[in-house]
Structures are given as C-alpha cells and as structure tokens.
Write a structure and sequence with these properties.
- The protein is of the alpha+beta class and 207 residues long.
- It has helices at residues 27-44, 51-55, 64-74, 98-104, 116-128, 133-140, 146-154, 177-182, 194-201; strands at 6-9, 12-18, 49-50, 80-85, 88-93, 158-160, 173-175.
- The strands form three sheets. The protein has a three-stranded antiparallel sheet.
- The longest helix has 18 residues, at 27-44.
- It is elongated and about 65 Å long.
- The relative contact order is 0.10.
C-alpha cells in the first residue's frame, strides 16, 4: 500500500514530520498502515525490536501488542513467524524449514549443534554470570579451553562482562541478547530451575 507518511509543518514549507497518527485515513486503512510499518521495521532488523521502538511508528492510541497479534494471525501457513524473545519481536523461519534453507545455502554437513561441553559451559555462564575462566574451572574441575570460549563468542552467545574482583582482574563472561533469542527467552529470569537444567546436562561432562 502507498500512504503519505509525512506532513508539512504549518508555517514551514520546507520541513516535514513523520505522520504517526494518520488522522486523514479511515480507521481500517490506518490500522493496516500501522501493521505494515511494524512489519517493515521487523523485516529490516537482524535482532529483536522492542515495544518502545515499534511504538515510534504508530499512533499514540495504537496497541503494539494487538498490532503484532494481527500480523501474526496473517502469517498462518507462512514459512516464517514472529517470535517474542529478548524483550522484543523478530521475524524468523519456522524450524520445519531448516533443512530447505540448509540445502539452498549448500551448507553440506555444517551444523550449529553444540557439543556437550559447549552446552555445559554456556549453561554455567548463563546461571553464574558474570563468571571468569577460574570460576568455570571450579565448576567443571578442569580448564575450559580458550577455543571453546572463542566459539561461543563467535556465535555471539557470550560477551565480555565486568572485570572479576580478584587478583589480576580477569575478564568475566556474560550471555547476550542473541543467547536469549536462540533459546526463546524473554530474559534470564525465564531460565529453567538450575537443578532441572543441571540434570539435563548429565552428571559428567567430558570435552
């Protein structure tokens, strides 16, 4: 659809402002335009977009949540969906189409699957952050390799946290918004109970 989104400021012919309210449109067309704006913002973003950011492109009386629900309803049967993760919304492909994407991209046998040790370290960081390598050693009873940390960092699942309050002030590690998004978490409070998570990792984790 094509709808003018800018209006001239009275008394200032050279200036234009973004028209959030769209008061010149009938109510149904106004709602459709707001839906389109939110879709466009989400499609353009590679990370979850929060409510406050989405609210900037719709009228003050519009509910972002209801607009999102209406967009989601129209995605029924489509190969992608709207996910509410990490405090915002993001478009992503449905899991049943993963093999199709893999084939089209000629990824061969490449995989983003975690080894048992990688998942164990990621869980340890998630539950005990900020934590340094010495803290991870205390948990696993052995050094955690720099290569493993580098892989988790490369996947953007962990990042540097504050310096540890110990001799040498070593770096600590924390999880990222990408971590929340990958595991469908709104925030760290959504992590499962520690006992349950630990049990799912098994009693012994060997690298």
């Amino acid at each position: 659809m094509t709808v003018a989104t800018k209006k001239r400021k009275p008394g200032n012919e050279g200036a234009a402002v973004f028209d959030r309210e769209l008061e010149d449109l009938p109510q149904d067309l106004r709602w459709r335009e707001w839906m389109g704006r939110i879709e466009a913002v989400l499609f353009a973003s590679a990370s979850p977009v929060g409510r406050d950011d989405l609210a900037r492109v719709v009228g003050q009386g519009a509910s972002v949540e209801i607009l999102i629900d209406d967009i989601q309803a129209e995605l029924t049967g489509r190969p992608y969906e709207l996910a509410h993760v990490a405090g915002g919304w993001i478009f992503r492909t449905k899991t049943q189409f993963a093999e199709s994407i893999k084939a089209a991209a000629d990824l061969g046998d490449q995989s983003l699957a975690f080894t048992e040790m990688e998942m164990g370290v990621l869980c340890a960081i998630a539950y005990h952050q900020p934590i340094d390598r010495a803290g991870l050693k205390d948990i696993f009873g052995k050094e955690v390799s720099r290569d493993l940390i580098a892989r988790l960092r490369y996947m953007r699942l962990i990042a540097d946290g504050p310096r540890a309050p110990r001799r040498g002030a070593p770096r600590t590690f924390v999880t990222t918004a990408e971590f929340l998004s990958m595991f469908d978490l709104q925030n760290l409070r959504d992590l499962p109970e520690l006992e349950l998570a630990t049990a799912s990792q098994g009693e012994n984790i060997d690298e």
